Amino acid sequence: MNLLRRVRQRLQEKLSLASKIRLRRLFAGVVRPFRQREKYLLTAPEIRPWDENDLLLVKDTVAGKRPLAKQEGGIQTSIIIPVFNKVDFTFQCLRSLFQEIDMTTTEVIVVNNASTDETSQVLGHFGDLIQVVDNAENQGFVDACNQGAAVASGEFLLFLNNDTIVQAGWLGSLLNAVENDSSVGAVGSMFIYPDGRIQEAGGIVWKTGEAYHYGWGELPSDRKYNFTREVDYCSAASLLVRKGLFDKLGGFDRRYAPAYYEDVDLCFGIRSMGHKVIFQPLSRVIHYEGVTAGRDTAANTKTYQFINLKKFAEKWSEALDKQFENDPALAPEAANRKPGPQIIVFDERVPTPDRDAGSARIVNILKLLARIGKPVFVPMKPLPESEQFLWKEGIETANVVDYVRLIKNRDFRVAILSRPEVARALMRSIRRADRKIKIVFDMVDAHFIRLGREHKITGNQELAIEARHSKDLELKLVGASDQVWCASTADKKAVSTAVAEERIVVIPTIHALQDRGNPPKDRDGLLFIGHLSHRPNSDAIHYFMREIYPLVSKSLPSVTFFIVGSNASPEIEAYDSATVRVMGYVPDIKPLLRSARVFVAPLRFGAGVNGKIGEALSYGLPVVTTSIGAEGVGLTAGENAMIADDPEEFANSVLRVYRDMDLWHRLSESGYQHIENHFTPQIVGQKIEEGLKRLGVLGTVA
Questions:
Q1: Which residue has the higher pLDDT, 584 or 301?
Q2: How far is CA 147 from CA 126, 133, 143, 171, in A?
Q3: Which of 146, 164, 276, 551 has its CA 20 to 30 A from that of 82?
Q4: What is the value of pTM for the model shown?
Q5: Mean pLDDT, rounded, of the chain
């Protein structure tokens, strides 16, 4: 493997993207066996008998968390744990629980179903840390959960088996899912066996009513089990439910007593009321399945799995008609209940939306696609640890090595190929894998226009040659695709000779309207934001510092120019001074956009849309730019921005906006309105839907 790694590193710099993809597919048969040998990621602690020392450790852990009084506003979450014997498991469960929960907003209710071991003794040691409901006889899981819910005071009920060990972030991630979306009625966890294999990553219910544990036996690290999604049901071994919905449904249906199918039934009931059931992979529990009920289906309450399946199928027969046929091959599609077409999206790398506008654009496109369908994102350079923010948005990701198999096995309606190198590498093989799939070539911007403009500025003949080659490639890809997405009307015009105009859709950068921040009198400084290794941006900084800033500083000697962006060259870093702040990468640029007085974008070449201009306008920050910068955003000089191509004129425009409060307010309002009219998620989402309708992916155009 070390030799393969060294060879790969040597080839990385020499091969085209197309060649790299072909090599990845060639070596897939070598890579996969090594993957299959990967060790499981979790090793659960051994369940051992508890003793007094263990209890002291738990009490010490909780001591610092014990509230003097419950937080104002009351209990948020009521955790309900039904138990019957198996005291050692109960103790381990409670120990993990108290390491995780906030006791000012959480209560723990243990329903003791007439345990005959030391359960009562152990629970008594916890004192007022828990509320105990004692039953004289074993009421079973269904009734015990309903008993706990009846005495609960939380807004949310969280049902938890005693044969579980909760992991870090277990509760917080469940709460985030319901707090961020009022349509979510229930949220469930990922269940992991003690040896690290998945027990369940969301549940599927087939047309027959049989329940299927999605992901059973697989690795928790597998991408397809790690994104938030709507599901048929989640197991009540760790299930958070809105108490109001639970009460309206009458709790767990007693027809399923003592146990089994009550959680599936509850989730179907929640969905019948118009709410969603969500699988949250960030919430994880180790589950020692079968401890309470046993594993012998003929000898104990497991028998009720078969009895209650029939009851469930009778109750929900109409809903079951709409479920998938019982076929594990359909599980990846059945595991995601979100309506809409399956869409696969390719880009060169995992996006970094806080660092460059192109990344922000593709992330926003993926979010919009997730509203109307089920997107799967495939980066050419996979980085699972960097893909997690997409999983939180409900966006599945996949490894590029598997893309052909993925396309053959999943019913994707459309493939979106972002950037020329990606489209060149993949377009033909995608066509071969699925003749029916529609292909969208997302240009992002017309690279040949940017290169040609750079050649005119620099006189570099290599750029002229590169521009010609880029134009040949891009126009060839435009002609070979079913639809073309470009970022601006200028780019659309440039490629309209290669394809019918109705096959071109303008999908610009996307900007939600923001709080505008301080009034101009409370603002100071000039601001530039952009990825500084991107040549149009680095050229803009040098141009501004050499030809414009000296003119501005003569009239405003104390004004500060803030340069924000990653990968600044030593030449740019050398500009840093008392009045020029080269800040590098700034994780949160909102305060800067709300406190700077003027945004400058002195671009001399480029194409598409300058995303940071749009972002500045979305904060109501007036912009001074060039005709190149204004082109993609569709700005009008003096109306929603100041536009100047001459250094002296640019400097004068900066000074005017900086000093003239009436002009500042007019540009701020007009620029803000321009974003609202053309670049918000709602507006661009409509453009995407219109484009997919033209392809027949979302139906027909009215």
A1: 584
A2: 20, 8, 6, 22
A3: 276
A4: 0.86
A5: 90
Distance CA 652, CA 254 (A): 78
- CA-to-CA distance for 430 and 423, rounded, in angstroms? 10
Contacts for 61 with CB less than 8 Å, ≥ 6 apart: 95, 98, 99
List of domains in the chain: 52-334 (3.90.550.10), 342-506 (3.40.50.2000), 520-679 (3.40.50.2000)
User: What are the tokens at 205?
Assistant: 């219910």
| Cα 320 to Cα 460: distance, rounded to the nearest angstrom | 66
DSSP per position, 581-605: EEEE--S--HHHHHH-SEEEE--SS
Distances (CA, A) of 17 to 7, 14, 478: 16, 10, 18
**Three-class DSSP labels, 408-471:** HHCCEEEEEEECHHHHHHHHHHHHHHCCCCEEEEEEECCHHHHHHHHHHHHCCHHHHHHHHHHH
CA distances to 141, 381, 535, 551, 583 from 160, rounded to whole Å, are: 11, 39, 55, 68, 48
CA 363 to chain centre: 8
Q: What is the DSSP string of 245-297?
A: HHHHTTSS-GGG-SSSSHHHHHHHHHHHTT-EEEEEEEEEEEE-TTTTT-S-T
CA 522 vs CA 515, 525, 651: distances in Å = 15, 11, 22
pLDDT in tens, 118-165: 999 999 988 888 999 999 999 999 999 999 999 999 999 999 999 999
Alpha helix positions (H), 481-523: 489-495
SS3 content of the chain, % helix, strand, coil (to 5): 45, 20, 35
Cα(441)–Cα(196) distance, rounded to whole angstroms? 41
Give me the residue label for tokens 């990621």.
41
Question: Residue 512, by phi and psi: left (phi above 0), alpha (psi -120 to 50) or beta?
Answer: beta
Q: Are 238 and 189 in contact (CB under 8 A)?
A: yes
Write phi, then psi, for 410 (nearest 5 degrees).
-120, 150
Q: How do residues 208-261 score in pLDDT, each as one tens digit?
A: 999 999 999 999 999 999 999 999 999 999 999 999 999 999 999 999 999 899
The pLDDT of residue 291: 47
